[in-house]
């Protein structure tokens, strides 16, 4: 009771590639990318500052704070012995109108903490403008 269809060669090789799974995977990937790309590129619109690389002139009224490699802080050329001494001096400077510039010169091998303490002291004293003094990079 077998049914014969007239095609008795069961060992025939199918030479066509089934592309349905490939198309399914590609459509899923396309949908995932379409959903995730707007999320990845969404940012808050802000106007970024423009860098002005102008040399700063040290004037007589400016305060120059320096940090050496061992973390010792200096007010112009006078060593500072405590955080309270630095803040007290900076508070006197902050009362002046207009406030003189405070310029921080940190040694290239100084720890960030030592420079950060000077910045924190300036903020604590109410200094409005702090500059960092650096060297120009060597040209090619």
Automatic annotation (TrEMBL):
Annotated source species: Oecophyllibacter saccharovorans
Quaternary data: The accessory proteins ExbB and ExbD seem to form a complex with TonB.
Keyword ATP-binding: no
Principal location class: membrane
Bilayer-crossing regions: 25-44
GO biological process: protein transport
Protein family: Belongs to the ExbD/TolR family.
A GO CC term attached to the entry: plasma membrane
Superkingdom of this protein's organism: Bacteria
Membrane topology listed for this record: Single-pass type II membrane protein
UniProt-recorded name of the protein: Biopolymer transporter ExbD
Stated role: Involved in the TonB-dependent energy-dependent transport of various receptor-bound substrates.
Aminoacyl-tRNA synthetase listed as a keyword: no
Keywords: Cell inner membrane, Cell membrane, Membrane, Protein transport, Transmembrane, Transmembrane helix, Transport
Cell compartment(s), UniProt: Cell inner membrane; Cell membrane
PANTHER family: BIOPOLYMER TRANSPORT PROTEIN EXBD, EXBD MEMBRANE COMPONENT OF PMF-DRIVEN MACROMOLECULE IMPORT SYSTEM
Gene Ontology molecular function terms on file: transmembrane transporter activity
